[in-house]
Write a structure and sequence with these properties.
The complex is a heterodimer. Chain A is mainly alpha-helical. In chain A, 69% of the residues lie in helices and 3% in strands. In chain A, strands 1-2 form a two-stranded antiparallel sheet. Chain A has a two-stranded antiparallel ribbon with strand order 3-4. Chain B has 2 domains: 85 residues, no CATH class; 182 residues, MetI-like (MetI-like fold), CATH 1.10.3720.10. Chain B is mainly α. Classes of the chains: A mainly alpha, B mainly alpha. The interface between A and B is large, with 107 and 99 residues.
Chain lengths: 313, 319
């Protein structure tokens, strides 16, 4: 019997693990190795340089810039997306009946949920190409066109959107415009997530709150929101990964993939530029390893901070 | 419930007899107080505004796809084309090569989604329900793939694929079979993670009964456990389908032409090429038609399966 189990386990794991090792783990391991060399990526010549690439990373102006842009997204993408998603979920659920059967949605909440989810299923590429047309810096763009018609924007001086490196609140305007797209495409999914979590709260919790004389606002902020804590923290981690990976948007939407004038440079864009345009592959690998370590530390920190005693219900 | 916000005990203007509570509950949203009605109006207004912000750009893209080029430039904002120019789609399909992109995408996804679900559930099942040395190690190895940035692996991955292609051409760059296997490998982390938690929740009793009845472990998996995991399989499967349909970085990296043969592009990759490289030469209506054709299938899949998508994803992330 034992023998049969071992054969079964190995048989089931062999192919998936082999594929995973070959196409995922091995490239990562190689990249970590290359990060200690000065390999250019095309020749076979490579020299071991130790931690030199990592030291260089610390004094690289472009990387520092990209790092702060990543931090900007890391803070703003989760913050705005979760705030908007919670607000929409609040309207969707608290606006409706909140009674002994728990929370139910407002009229048409099912339709709203389907619609709000649309951007989530669209490819980032489709979203980016679409927003490229919305953001066009002439009268043909959706936003500029509408604003010109209304007279809010001067015909000779349209909004430049992702071509605008001028700082707004200390951050290049192009980053804010990219942020808007990220929030637009993410809010619906997290709203559905929060709604589902709200509706899984058992009805007796609300019964008790109602009996204690809580109104709908009180119920939401004092009862519902604290019970959503777990879900919100998971959402925060997921959005953190998305914020680290804004590359598709930068790639399609910004001039020279990180421009104008490096105003929208992020880790991934610098990495790709360094590896494939400048041909400094070893150095690019060091960037990637640094990013990976940063991502893992961040996830661990977030888990640690947000983990609390779980409320069972 | 606005009518029950006060304790029925003390005498007050809002005192509500219990009998009324029930009837008010039955009567729906209970807009007895003007504040409630204003609030309900406000929430509907805001929800409507956001819904328009989501849908309007999509409709605008679809409608622009039906305009002539001149019209796209002259009247970019109008939602009603003068005449519906369906030929834009035909042009994008043939000259814009959308037809080829579609065929490649469908060929790749047919293999990759099936294999992802098969291999993913096999691995997840064994890891979730059998105890053996190295179990945790393999599980965490899969899990770590969720956090690592894909760009890091780009060049070694390309090199690996290139070198494999030298020995065994169907697994080289620009080959469908290669892309299928790469998609499977890169989807395993996500799939194993979610199917693992799914197989954990299945009751032990049925598995034991099956074994006592003399089923082999393999048979137990395919004819008992897999059917029981069907809801999970469907929602994770849909997710892999959407994710792989939308994947752009891996194909851009790996479906490059070697020796001058034409690229077997998939849809997302093709669209990026069209928009970034301006391969359309200001054929705006054609670009809009391409975007429309890329987004309609996923929207339709989503609308048909929206219940499974929403419940599956939220169950996966929420728990």
């Amino acid at each position: 019997m034992r023998h049969g189990v071992a054969r079964f386990v190995i048989g089931f794991l062999a192919l998936p693990v082999a594929l995973y090792l070959f196409y995922v783990v091995w490239p990562f391991a190689q990249a970590a190795g290359y990060s200690l060399t000065d390999w250019g990526g095309y020749s076979d010549r490579q020299q071991f340089v130790g931690l030199e690439n990592y030291v260089r990373l610390l004094s690289d102006e472009l990387i520092r810039k990209a790092f702060w842009h990543n931090v900007f997204f890391l803070v703003t993408v989760p913050l705005f997306t979760i705030a908007l998603a919670l607000f929409l979920a609040f309207l969707l659920n608290v606006g409706g009946r909140e009674d002994r059967a728990g929370i139910r949605g407002v009229l048409g909440s099912g339709v709203y949920k389907i619609i709000f989810f649309f951007p989530q299923v669209l490819s980032l590429v489709v979203v980016a190409v679409m927003w490229q047309q919305i953001y066009r810096a002439d009268g043909q763009g959706l936003i500029n066109g509408v604003l010109m018609k209304v007279g809010l924007v001067d015909r000779d001086n349209p909004i430049a959107f992702t071509n605008d490196p001028e700082p707004f609140l200390g951050v290049p305007a192009v980053l804010w415009w990219l942020l808007l797209i990220a929030v637009w495409s993410g809010a619906g999914f997290y709203m559905v997530l929060f709604s589902a979590a709200m509706q899984s709260i058992p009805k007796d919790v609300f019964e008790a709150a109602i009996l204690d004389g809580a109104g709908r606002f009180h119920t939401f902020f004092r009862v519902t929101l604290p019970l959503l804590r777990d879900t919100v923290s998971v959402a925060w981690i997921y959005l953190g990964f998305i914020a680290l990976d804004m590359y598709a948007l930068v790639f399609v939407m910004t001039p020279s993939q990180g421009g104008p004038n490096h105003a929208s440079e992020i880790f991934a864009s610098v990495l790709n530029f360094t590896a494939f345009q400048k041909g400094q592959f070893g150095y690019a690998c060091a960037m990637g390893v640094a990013l990976a370590i940063f991502a893992i530390l961040l996830a661990a920190a977030q888990l640690k901070i947000t983990r609390r005693e779980r409320i069972e219900y | 419930m606005s009518t029950v916000t006060h304790d029925p005990g003390p005498v007050g203007p809002d005192l509500v007899p219990p009998a009324r509570t029930t009837s008010a509950r039955r009567s729906g949203s209970g807009g007895r107080r003007p504040g409630t009605q204003i609030f309900n109006g406000f929430s509907h207004l805001f929800l409507l505004v956001w819904a328009i912000m989501v849908v309007y750009p999509l409709i605008w893209v679809v409608m622009s796809a039906l305009k002539s080029d001149a019209e796209v430039i002259r009247q970019p904002l109008s939602l009603l084309p003068e005449t519906l120019r369906w030929e834009n789609f035909g042009r994008a399909w043939t000259e814009g090569q959308l037809g080829d992109f579609f065929l490649n995408t469908v060929l790749v996804l047919a293999g990759s989604v099936t294999l992802t679900m098969l291999f993913g559930s096999m691995a997840a099942y064994v890891l979730a329900r059998y105890d053996f040395p190295g179990n945790r190690l393999i599980y965490y190895m899969f899990l770590s793939g969720l956090t690592l940035p894909i760009y890091l692996a780009a060049v070694p991955l390309y090199k690996g694929v290139f070198n494999t292609g030298v020995f065994f051409p169907p697994l080289g760059p620009n080959k469908h079979l290669m892309l299928i296997l790469v998609y499977v490998a890169w989807s395993l982390a996500f799939t194993v993670f979610f199917m693992h938690s799914f197989f954990r929740t299945l009751p032990n009793a049925i598995a034991e009964a099956g074994l006592i009845d003399g089923a082999s472990h393999t048979r137990l998996f395919f004819s008992v456990m897999l059917p029981m995991a069907k809801p999970g399989l469907i929602s994770i499967g849909i997710f892999n389908m959407l994710g792989q349909w939308n994947q752009w970085y891996l194909p851009t990296l790996l479906m490059q032409s070697v020796d001058g043969e034409s690229k077997n592009q998939v849809i997302a990759q093709g669209l990026i090429d069209l928009s970034v490289n301006q391969g359309y030469k200001s054929d705006w209506s054609g670009l809009f038609a391409g975007v429309t054709m890329a987004m309609l299938p996923v929207l339709i899949v989503y609308i048909v399966f929206q219940r499974q998508v929403q419940s599956g994803l939220t169950a996966g992330v929420g728990k």
